[in-house]
């Protein structure tokens, strides 16, 4: 009888157990185990005995089943020659012979929770991956691959061993980025600081080369209130900009965060109740947020459904991942809208908040609309959802936006 092992399809269907770590052996390759952490992070390990003692070799990143079997076979071949594969890996790590792209991918797959155990938002993980030069292999973010063409940090450090990266390398990288993207340089530095700290904690490197590198670009308070003329110009230009235009219009009408909107799925939308539920896993404050949808927002969703009917998956996407190149798309849209002062997509939230203040909308309702929390006792102990109040405010806001056009 043929020995049946794991399959790629079966692996995708396995779910994590929040209470414990799971290991599933691959019977087609003795010693190879699929590992699923309570957080949902996945990986592979190869278990074996060497000199009578149990040993474990952790495979870097989360490769496909076929690659994992090849790596396990390499370990088996070493054992046949009397070589301990885990010791070889340790020695390579100590010599700094770990490829930076591989460690980036491992970091993106495994670093899913903050120190306090709170999950890292998907939007944050995707943005960090973009800065490093990676994109998710699958929607569940369990495997990452370099972007093509090469982008981000990987484009500058391709082929480098992590042990060879110095403080000078980090400083020159962020200084170079700052020439064209000052804020992007600061965000890249922040991502590298987190990454290298993670590597130190896992004894991949002895010290972080980014530890004493300071931000190279001063930042001013972000955001401003857009005028009605600017809102109208942007909204009209968006009508001719395909899926990105739909995203911009929906973002303006709903007043939610850009990253959370990019990750919206059809499963989050209730077309009958006209609501959008943003899961707590991706919101900034970790709380699920219900957004009542005004009729113009519903019309955008119906239009998208009429063009490409789907029951699941991302709403604003060009394939299987969220829309990318947002900055370039936004710059193109701005040119189509005419002569506008410097603006950002985040200005939509500032504009809606200011408009609600002008309309004398109560503060607790304003906060409820945009999922803000001021930490007072009402927000801690109160359980009123403000659903009807939010629906009324967003309907009035949508009417205001349409009146401008």
Structure in words:
It is a single chain. The protein has 17 helices and nine strands. It has three domains: 16-95, Double Stranded RNA Binding Domain, CATH 3.30.160.390; 101-201, no CATH class; 228-404, Intergrase catalytic core (hpI Integrase, Chain A, Orthogonal Bundle), CATH 1.10.443. It is globular and about 80 Å long. The protein has a four-stranded antiparallel sheet with strand order 1-2-3-4. Strands 7-8-9 form a three-stranded antiparallel sheet. A two-stranded antiparallel sheet has the order 5-6. It is an alpha+beta fold and 405 residues long. It is 47% helix and 10% strand.
List keywords for this structure.
single chain; 405 residues; alpha+beta; Double Stranded RNA Binding Domain; hpI Integrase, Chain A; 3 domains; four-stranded antiparallel beta sheet; three-stranded antiparallel beta sheet; 17 helices; 9 strands; 10% strand; globular
Q: Can you identify the CATH class of the largest domain?
A: Mainly Alpha
CATH architecture of the largest domain: Orthogonal Bundle
Assembly context of the chains: single chain
Mean pLDDT: 87
Q: Strand count, sense and closure of the main sheet?
A: 4 strands, antiparallel
């Amino acid at each position: 009888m043929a020995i049946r092992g794991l399959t790629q399809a079966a692996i995708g269907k396995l779910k994590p157990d929040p209470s414990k770590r799971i290991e599933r052996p691959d019977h087609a390759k003795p010693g190879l185990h699929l590992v699923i952490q309570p957080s949902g992070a996945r990986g592979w390990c190869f278990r074996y005995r060497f000199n009578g003692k149990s040993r474990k070799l952790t495979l870097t990143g989360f490769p496909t089943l076929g690659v994992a079997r090849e790596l396990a076979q390499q370990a088996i071949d070493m054992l046949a020659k009397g070589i301990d594969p885990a010791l070889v890996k340790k020695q390579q790590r100590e010599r700094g012979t770990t490829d930076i792209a591989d460690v980036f991918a491992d970091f993106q797959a495994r670093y899913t929770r903050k120190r306090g155990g709170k999950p890292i938002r998907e939007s944050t993980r995707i943005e960090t991956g973009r800065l490093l030069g990676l994109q998710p292999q699958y929607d569940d973010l369990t495997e990452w691959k370099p972007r093509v063409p090469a982008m981000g940090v990987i484009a500058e450090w391709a082929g480098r061993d992590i042990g060879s990266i110095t403080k000078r390398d980090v400083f020159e990288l962020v200084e170079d980025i700052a020439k064209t993207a000052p804020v992007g340089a600061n965000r890249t530095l922040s991502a590298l600081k987190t990454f290298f700290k993670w590597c130190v904690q896992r004894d991949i490197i002895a010290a972080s080369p980014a530890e004493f590198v300071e931000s190279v670009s001063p930042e001013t308070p972000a955001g401003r209130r857009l005028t009605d003329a600017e809102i109208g110009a942007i909204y009209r230009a968006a009508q001719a900009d395909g899926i990105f235009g739909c995203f911009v219009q929906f973002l303006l009408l709903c007043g939610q965060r850009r990253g959370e909107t990019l990750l919206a799925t059809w499963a989050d939308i209730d077309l009958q109740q006209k609501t959008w539920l943003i899961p707590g896993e991706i919101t900034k404050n970790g709380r699920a947020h219900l957004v009542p949808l005004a009729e113009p927002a519903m019309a955008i969703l119906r239009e998208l459904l009429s063009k490409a009917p789907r029951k699941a998956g991302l709403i604003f996407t060009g394939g299987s991942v969220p829309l990318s190149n947002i900055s370039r798309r936004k710059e193109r849209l701005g040119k189509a809208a005419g002569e506008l002062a410097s603006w950002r997509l985040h200005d939509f939230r500032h504009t809606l908040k200011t408009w609600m203040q002008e309309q004398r909308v109560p503060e607790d309702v304003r906060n409820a609309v945009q999922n803000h929390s001021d930490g007072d006792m009402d927000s801690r102990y109160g359980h009123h959802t403000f659903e009807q109040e939010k629906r009324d405010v967003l309907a009035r806001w949508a009417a205001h936006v349409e009146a401008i056009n």
